[in-house]
Every structure is written in structure tokens, then in C-alpha cells.
């Protein structure tokens, strides 16, 4: 009702100011007539009409006619119809129209203040006849009066917020904000008030600010009871009065967790069983405690606080599942202890004293039973170290190992050696008592240590269980090797050497390893023949010096001296050997530097000279050149032609470097070498057998002269030979004349060869030539001796 009263008062005020006067009196305007009199008349100030600068129009007009805004009037309008009102500016002619005669201003359609709150227009009075302005343009605005036609809208359709559980009343949660598009300066159309329509009694909202706060105490805001809330907030304009427009939004509020719950075991007693052979560090079992909190507040720690297995078992926390992992800390022995009792405590890792005390923890008991297992025998020691002298006899017992069955039955144990560790079978073990003995002789100089593995197994066992123990055998040294010269010594002595001159220092080596170290003694061999020339002096440090005993040595008299030196050790039993030192007599300079020795010494010391090496290399190069030239000449040697004489077309003489089976043996040579390479690649046939007929097409038919019946045998013979020659795969690839020594059977003329003919001096009868026809007429005249009586 209050809204309608305000609108009525506004309408009355609007009607009282609809008529606006644009001018109070005539306005002087510059024309051509007045311009001519400017120098006569004084300048006058024009008299302008007055007007209000604003018109008001209600938005969202729903009438069918044009909405009346107001009336424009000028003092120049005397009501005689000579003036005309002209409107210009925003929306002139489309949104706003003016009556040119009366000056009434109208709006042609409904307007929305939220789209455009005001319009700026210009009005002017002109002469209707000539269109000349009677006064300057006047600018004014049309402002739209707001009505409550827009509901409030929130910034978000859905808000998300959170607040810790156990919060006190009035704890800030979040703030929502809504906006109204109506005019805030006009009435209460944009005055908003917030209220909560869903979410009671847990939350409240401040009407003016939209701040949401908790409405219940800590005991009622428990995340473990309810975690998510959906609150609906309403914003209403007109300051929340009846008739105002409303807008709503949803706020999803979650309670965040605080550490207000201690962990609790799911059961008070846990039972596990574990075999006694379980390895240290292995898993025994898992226990679980639950915490109603989540995340960091649900992390917990397990500890063993009491029991008889504090030093045997250990417990840790699985950070992924928050379970307690019970593991083995020490080996178990069923024969010693069959079960253990443990007391386990659990508490939060990060307790919050605001909600929980430091004593918030839980206790559970664990009973662990040890299962009996048929264990393998156990050795009394971790390892064994035995010693034996290298000269010990085969079969000597060098030591023993001992193992017992840890089970209650105490089964007897048998022993054996892992032959992978004793491939040569040097050692053996007695299966009953574990004594280790020698099976082969030892040599410390070859192997000073032997590492073998002894296996202990129960004689009677339900499973093939065993244990392996390493045994280290040290071979003790015995003085069984004589000392020897450290190397092959060869030195020289100058011809002008003086008595007592040192010419060489020698040392010795011994593969034995005595406890106190080596002590070598050096002396000349009793049978040595150089005692008058050389002597040996022991230096006392396992070395000795060779000295001359006389002055002057003759190289031509004796060029080489062999000095036999006896080396012995000082241990029991004493070992000795004799080494030979070679001393050559050489010519030296004054400083004792060698200049020349005999041929043997020279060759042994200096080797081949540079000239000799160069000569040897030159000989090798010459030999290589000769070989290369010989090979090149042999490649350039031309082969002899197959046909020696081109004039003889009957006989084809082919030369070969081997002897064949005669002229008719065509298989003794490779006739294919004369053929074209492409033809040879297409068909390669063996030469030692007759090729199949299918590989060769039959020879083409030839038209030959048919001889007389009397020569049928010659015809058959020739045809047979021609066919054989055509089909012969070994025939030469060129045309050749094939001759045959057959002239037919029973020929009257016999052979035409002069070699086999009878002497021409004898008389012969050639009358038969006249019977052969006209072709033999000439022969008949020549040999017949009588005149021919043939018809011409």
C-alpha cells in the first residue's frame, strides 16, 4: 500500500510540471535586415525562455497508447500556428516524438531503465514557413523512473565452504553477495535483506552482510556424525518487506576433521603362529586399530610395551594402511620356548591437546605360538679352521667337525663333503663322526689354502634337510724345496782384472716359506775347477759376491769360465742346490768397460748387426719381386690356337696338354670352352655321358637327292652319319668338313682313291660307263676306247 501511495504522489507532481516554457519573450535573431543596421543600433542581449532540464518517465509502460512525457513551450509561440517544434537527439523520431504544433512530447514504446537510465534530447522552435530557427536549440534529458522489476541475483549459483568440526557458536563460515539491477537511489527496490531458508538450526546468516556463521555449539557440530550440509540463502529486495522480489543460492558446507578421536583396536587379543625356522626380519602378522578421524589425524604408532618377547619381536606401522606389522627380531627355537605374550599400545602420531589428552591410547595383547619344524643339524661353530703339514701322509686325520640335531628327537647326523668345493677329492670325511682326512698328497707351494664345505644331514629325516659349514684348511710349510739362483747369471771379467775384484752379485730364491724367513748360504762347489781363479763371498743378506783370486786373464788361453755355486738353506732338513755362473773373458778399457769378447759372447750380447739385418731384408724383397714377375709372365702367355692350319678344312687338329684316347675320343677335352659363354650358361652338360635326347631337338629335315637303288647302302650310311653329327653335343661350334672312309658295298668302281687303285698301266673294262647315262658319256669316250654309238 505504501508503494502505491508513493506512485500516486509522483504522478501528481509530474502533471504539474508537464508544461514547460522555452522562452519568456521574443528572441532577437541576426538576419540580413538587421546586419545592415549594425552600425546604427546598439547590440542587445536576446531574451531566452526558461525550462526544466529534466523530464521523468516511468519505465516498463504497459499502455496501448503513446506515453505522455510533457509539453515544450516557447515565448515565440503566440498560438497563431506560425511556429513549429523540432526534436533532435537520442531516440528522436523513433523512441520520442513531439507534436510540432503543440510541443507535446511522447514516448512511442516501453523503456527499461536497466538498459538505459536516461536520454539526452534537443528542442528548437523554427518558423513554419521558411524553416528558419526562431531561437537556439535547448538541451534537456528524459530520465526513467525505476520500478521494482528485477530480482536480486547472487554472484555464484553454488557456494562451497568449510568449517572445522567442534567449532563454537558464531564461527565464521563464508559470505554470500547478491546484487539488484534496480535503482539504488530510488526507493527500496535495490535494498536487499539476507535470510536462511534451509540449514536451520546449524547455521545462520547476517541480514545485511550475507555472512554465514555456525549456530550450534561444539558438541552438535561433529564430523563423525554428519560431515556435509546444504544451506539455502535467500536475498530479498524492498529491504525484505512483503512484495519484494527474491533470489536464492545454495551453499555446500563441509565440516573439516580435527583429531578428536583416539585409535581403538578392533579386538583385545590377537593370536599368531610362526615356524621356528622363520628368518629374522620376516613378517609374523598384522594387527589393526581404527580411528574415526581421517588423514593426518588418523595416523597412529604401535609399540611393544610389555611381555616376554620384547627382545624377540618388533612392531612398526604401515603408513599406507595404518596397520601394525609384527616382525621377528631374533631367531626362534621351539625347543627353548614355545610361545610368547606381547602387550601392544597404539596412539595417534599427532595428538591435539585441544580435543584429546596425551593419555588417549589403547592396549591389546598378542600371543605368538612357535611351531616345531624338523630343522637341519646345527654345527657347533660358525666356521672351522684346520691346519695340516704338506708332508702329511694320505689317510692322516687333520681335524673334525661336529653338528647336532636341534630337534627333540636328537637324530644322529651324517657328514659329507660338497664335491663342488673339492673337485680333486683331496679330502674325505668320515660320515659317522665328522673327521676330515687326507686322500691325496699336499703341496703348499701349489695351494696354501683349501676351502671346502662339509654337509651335515640327519640319518633319519622326514625331509631332505641339511646344513653346510665352510671349513678352511691351511697347509703348513715343510722345508722340501732347495734354494736356487734367482736367475741365469752371465757376466764377464776383463783380461786386465786384478785379484780381489768383484765382478758379479748373485741372489737365490726358495718356494718354501719358513717361519723365521729365508737364510741362504753360498759357497763354491768342492769339485769346481775355478777355485784358483774365482771365489764366492757370502754377504749375509741372502746374496753373495763373485770375486777374482788372481790378476790377469787370457782370452786366447781360455775365453769362458763356469763357476759352480752351492746354495743351501739353514733349515731342517737342510736343502741345497748347485747353480752355474758363466764368466767370459773380454778385452776392456782402462775404466773396465768391455770392448771386445769372443764370438759367442759378441753374438749373445750384441746380436745381429745392422748391416746383416739390411742384407737379409734385401734378399727377401728380391725373392718377392721374382715371384711376382714370374706370376705376371705366366698370365700374359698366349694359348696356342685350336686350328693350326686354316687351309686344311677337313682335319681339325686340336692341341691339348694331355694325352687322350685317340682321334675318336671327343670326351677327353672340354669342347664347351669353344662355345659362346651365353650358350654355355643356358645349358651345361656333362661330357663323360651321352646327353638325353630330350635336351636336343631333332635335326631339321633336309631335302637330298634320292640316289639310285643301287646306292641305297651308301645313302643309309651317309644319313646315319649326318644325323649323328648333327646331334653330337661335342661337335665344334663352327662349320667343318666331315669325311668318312666308306664308299658302299659291292661297288663296281671300287675306291676312287689313287692310293688303293690298281696300276693305270693295266687294261680295264670301262664299258659299264656307257650304261650310266648321258652324264657319264664323256668318261665313257675317254676310257672306253671305242666310239660311242649314243644318239646325239
Class by SSE composition: mainly beta
Q: Stretches where pLDDT falls below 50 for ≥5 residues?
A: 1-50, 599-606, 642-650, 674-690, 693-697, 699-707, 756-761, 786-792
Please give the radius of gyration in angstroms.
Answer: 71 Å
Shape: extended
Task: Estimate percent helicity.
Answer: 10-25%
Distance between the termini: 173 Å
Tally of helical segments: 7
Q: Tell me the number of strands.
A: 43
Largest sheet: 5 strands, mixed
Percent in strands: 25-35%
Tell me about this structure:
Pfam families: CADH_Y-type_LIR (PF01049), Cadherin (PF00028). One of its GO terms (cellular component) is catenin complex. This protein is 10% helix and 32% strand. The radius of gyration is 71 Å and the shape is extended. With 792 residues, the chain is mostly beta strands. The strands form twelve sheets. Strands 36, 38, 41, 42 and 43 form a five-stranded mixed sheet that branches. It has seven helices and 43 strands. The N terminus and C terminus are likely disordered.
Amino acid at each position: 500500500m505504501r508503494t502505491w501511495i508513493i506512485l500516486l504522489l509522483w504522478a501528481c507532481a509530474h502533471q504539474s510540471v508537464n508544461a514547460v516554457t522555452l522562452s519568456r519573450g521574443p528572441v532577437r535573431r541576426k538576419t540580413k535586415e538587421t546586419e545592415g543596421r549594425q552600425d546604427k543600433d546598439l547590440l542587445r542581449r536576446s531574451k531566452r525562455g526558461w525550462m526544466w532540464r529534466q523530464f521523468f518517465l516511468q519505465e516498463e509502460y504497459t499502455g496501448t497508447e503513446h506515453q505522455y512525457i510533457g509539453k515544450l513551450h516557447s515565448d515565440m509561440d503566440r498560438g497563431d500556428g506560425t511556429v513549429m517544434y523540432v526534436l533532435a537527439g537520442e531516440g528522436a523520431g523513433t523512441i520520442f516524438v513531439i507534436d510540432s504544433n503543440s510541443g507535446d512530447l511522447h514516448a512511442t514504446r516501453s523503456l527499461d531503465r536497466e538498459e538505459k537510465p536516461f536520454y539526452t534530447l534537443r528542442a528548437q522552435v523554427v518558423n513554419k514557413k521558411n524553416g528558419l530557427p526562431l531561437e537556439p536549440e535547448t538541451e534537456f534529458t528524459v530520465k526513467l523512473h525505476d520500478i521494482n522489476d528485477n530480482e536480486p541475483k547472487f554472484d555464484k549459483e553454488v557456494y562451497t565452504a568449510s568449517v572445522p568440526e567442534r567449532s563454537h557458536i558464531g564461527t565464521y563460515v563464508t559470505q554470500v553477495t547478491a546484487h539488484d539491477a534496480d535503482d539504488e537511489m530510488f526507493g527500496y527496490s535495490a535494498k536487499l535483506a539476507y535470510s536462511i531458508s534451509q540449514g536451520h538450526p546449524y547455521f545462520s546468516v547476517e541480514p545485511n552482510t550475507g555472512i554465514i556463521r555456525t549456530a550450534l555449539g561444539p558438541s552438535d557440530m561433529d564430523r563423525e556424525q554428519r560431515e556435509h550440509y546444504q544451506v539455502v540463502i535467500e536475498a530479498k529486495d524492498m529491504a525484505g518487506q512483503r512484495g519484494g522480489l527474491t533470489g536464492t543460492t545454495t551453499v555446500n558446507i563441509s565440516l573439516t576433521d580435527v583429531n578428536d578421536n583416539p585409535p581403538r583396536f578392533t579386538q583385545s587379543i590377537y593370536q599368531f603362529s610362526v615356524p621356528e625356522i622363520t628368518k629374522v626380519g620376516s613378517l609374523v602378522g598384522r594387527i589393526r586399530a581404527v580411528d574415526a578421524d581421517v588423514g593426518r589425524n588418523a595416523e597412529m604408532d604401535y609399540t611393544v610395551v610389555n611381555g616376554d618377547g620384547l627382545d624377540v619381536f618388533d612392531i612398526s606401522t604401515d603408513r599406507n594402511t595404518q596397520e601394525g606389522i609384527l616382525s621377528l627380531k631374533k631367531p626362534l627355537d621351539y625347543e627353548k620356548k614355545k610361545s610368547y605374550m606381547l602387550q601392544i599400545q597404539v596412539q595417534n602420531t599427532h595428538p591435539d591437546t585441544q580435543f584429546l589428552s596425551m593419555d588417549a591410547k589403547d592396549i591389546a595383547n598378542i600371543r605368538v605360538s612357535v611351531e616345531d619344524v624338523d630343522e637341519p643339524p646345527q654345527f657347533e661353530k660358525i666356521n672351522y679352521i684346520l691346519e695340516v703339514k704338506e708332508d702329511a701322509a694320505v689317510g692322516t686325520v687333520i681335524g673334525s667337525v661336529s653338528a647336532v640335531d636341534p630337534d627333540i628327537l636328537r637324530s644322529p647326523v651324517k657328514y659329507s663333503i660338497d664335491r663342488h668345493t673339492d673337485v680333486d677329492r683331496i679330502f674325505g670325511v668320515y660320515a659317522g663322526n665328522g673327521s676330515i682326512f687326507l686322500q691325496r698328497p699336499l703341496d703348499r707351494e701349489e695351494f696354501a689354502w683349501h676351502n671346502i664345505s662339509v654337509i651335515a644331514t640327519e640319518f633319519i629325516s622326514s625331509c631332505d634337510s641339511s646344513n653346510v659349514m665352510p671349513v678352511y684348511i691351511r697347509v703348513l710349510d715343510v722345508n722340501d724345496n732347495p734354494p736356487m739362483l734367482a736367475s741365469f747369471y752371465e757376466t764377464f771379467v776383463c783380461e786386465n782384472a786384478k785379484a780381489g775384484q768383484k765382478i758379479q752379485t748373485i741372489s737365490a730364491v726358495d718356494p718354501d716359506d719358513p717361519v723365521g724367513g729365508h737364510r741362504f748360504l753360498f759357497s763354491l762347489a768342492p769339485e769346481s775347477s775355478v777355485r784358483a781363479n774365482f771365489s764366492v763371498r757370502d754377504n749375509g743378506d741372502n746374496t753373495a759376491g763373485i770375486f777374482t783370486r788372481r790378476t790377469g786373464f787370457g782370452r786366447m788361453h781360455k775365453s769362458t769360465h763356469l763357476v759352480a755355486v752351492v746354495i743351501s738353506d739353514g733349515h731342517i732338513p737342510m736343502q741345497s742346490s748347485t747353480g752355474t755362473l758363466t764368466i767370459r773373458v773380454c778385452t776392456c778399457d782402462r775404466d773396465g768397460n768391455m770392448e771386445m769378447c769372443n764370438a759367442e759372447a759378441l753374438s749373445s750380447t750384441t746380436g745381429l748387426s745392422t748391416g746383416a739385418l739390411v742384407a737379409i731384408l734385401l734378399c727377401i724383397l728380391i725373392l718377392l719381386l721374382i715371384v711376382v714377375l714370374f706370376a705376371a709372365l705366366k698370365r700374359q702367355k698366349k694359348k696356342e690356337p685350336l686350328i693350326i692350319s686354316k687351309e686344311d678344312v677337313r682335319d681339325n687338329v686340336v692341341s691339348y696338354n694331355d694325352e687322350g684316347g685317340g682321334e675318336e675320343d671327343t670326351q677327353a677335352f672340354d669342347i664347351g670352352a669353344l662355345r659362346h659363354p651365353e650358350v654355355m650358361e643356358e645349358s651345361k652338360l656333362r661330357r663323360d655321358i651321352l646327353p638325353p635326347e630330350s635336351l636336343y631337338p631333332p635335326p631339321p629335315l633336309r631335302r637330298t637327292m634320292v640316289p639310285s637303288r643301287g646306292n641305297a647302302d651308301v645313302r643309309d650310311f651317309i644319313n646315319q652319319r649326318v644325323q649323328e653329327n648333327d646331334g653330337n653335343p661335342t661337335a665344334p661350334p663352327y662349320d667343318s668338313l666331315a669325311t668318312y672312309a666308306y664308299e658302299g658295298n659291292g661297288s663296281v668302281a671300287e675306291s676312287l682313291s689313287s692310293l688303293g687303285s690298281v696300276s693305270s698301266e693295266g687294261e680295264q673294262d670301262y664299258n659299264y660307263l656307257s650304261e650310266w647315262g648321258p652324264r657319264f658319256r664323256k668318261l665313257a669316250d675317254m676310257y672306253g676306247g671305242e666310239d660311242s654309238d649314243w644318239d646325239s
